[in-house]
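Researcher: Good morning. I'm working through a list of sequences from a screen, and I'd like to move beyond sequence-only analysis. For each chain I'm collecting a predicted structure so we can compare shapes side by side. This is the next one on the list. No need for commentary yet; just the structure.
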Amino acid sequence: MKRTLYLAGGFASLALGTVGALLPLLPTVPFVILAAFCFARSSPALERRLVEHPRFGPHIVAWREKGAISRKGKRAALAAFAVSAIVAFAFAPMPAPLITLAAALIGGAWIWTRPEA
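Model: Good morning. Structure tokens for this chain:
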């Protein structure tokens, strides 16, 4: 049962990562890293395919070994947070934009403090 749940979680995360490749505000790499985590507990063959992937493999390995995020990834995440906060202030009624801003600042600070790959 546990293996099945991890396998389903891995496929769901991979699906979200695929959607994230098409939508500018949805991240891709964190979902692929989560998929690798789930596949490591359910399907070593699928995990190996992700770790050996030429585009996503280095990000997965860097995260696993050092908890590292590339400088480009950090900049992209912070830009997405900024756009989200700006959109919230432009279109959402108060206090929702303040909550969005707080989440962006907390998330951005955490991302920025991660080591760089």
